[in-house]
Amino acid sequence: MGVTQDLSFINLIINASVLVQLVMGLLMLVSLMSWWYIFLKMFTIRNEVKLTDEFEEAFWYNQNLNDLYTQINGNSLRDQGALEHIFSAGFVEYVKLKKQHGVDASAVMEGARRAMRATYQRETDRLESHLAFLASVGSVSPYVGLFGTVWGIMNAFRGLANVGQATVAHVAPGIAEALVATAMGLFAAIPAVIAYNRYAHDINRLATRFDSFTEEFSNVLQRQP
Fold it and tell me: Which of 74, 137, 172, 215 sits at 20 to 30 Å (Cα–Cα) from 154?
């Protein structure tokens, strides 16, 4: 078998040491999982932006809060975004406290704000789910790949001890096998880092919109008779 055949990608993986193969397998598994979460978060955030735009338009177009609440409850859960949940939580708490005797206006507003804040935190946590996994993949994968590289290079140099005259043909497969682990580590890390930074930015923008809506809706409730 020639050197060119030995250095093919598949042969490098097959002929690698067991530990390096385990490192490669782990990195491949982590990469597949990160790509799954990348696409999952992409569709989730796009859908959330769409639902947020639609609800803000409906909210400012229709100032009848009872009609808007009834319309939201008529939608399926899949068609309800974070703003709908924040609105519903604040409105339900506001109506419930309003019906109680002896509760002043400030206590009513404080209760509505607390309900909206709690829902805001839950919705933000939902959007941020799996981001920690992407961050971990982006930060740890290069080091895992580097570990496989170091181990592979050690094996390559140990193999030279049994060879009377070292040539490129003897060294190249072991070095190439080791570098494949580093390449796979970078392949897993780079998309995860890019996706994490992008999605964290998008979620922060959505969180700002949720926070602004909470304050604006509180002002609307304060003006209610």
Answer: 137
Token pair for 65: 């809060």
Whether 60 has a pLDDT exceeding 90, the answer reads no
What pTM was estimated for this model as a whole?
0.82
Sequence spans of domains, the chain = 3-222
Mean pLDDT of 213-218: 91
Radius of gyration over alpha carbons of the chain, in Å? 28
Q: Which of 15, 26, 23, 28 is closest to 148 using CA atoms?
A: 23
- In the numeric block, which tokens belong to residue 50? 């769409």
Total Cβ atoms within 10 A of residue 191: 17
- Nearest Cα to Cα of residue 145 among 193, 187, 173, 176: 187
pLDDT at 150: 86
- Residue 164: pLDDT band by 50, 70, 90 thresholds? low
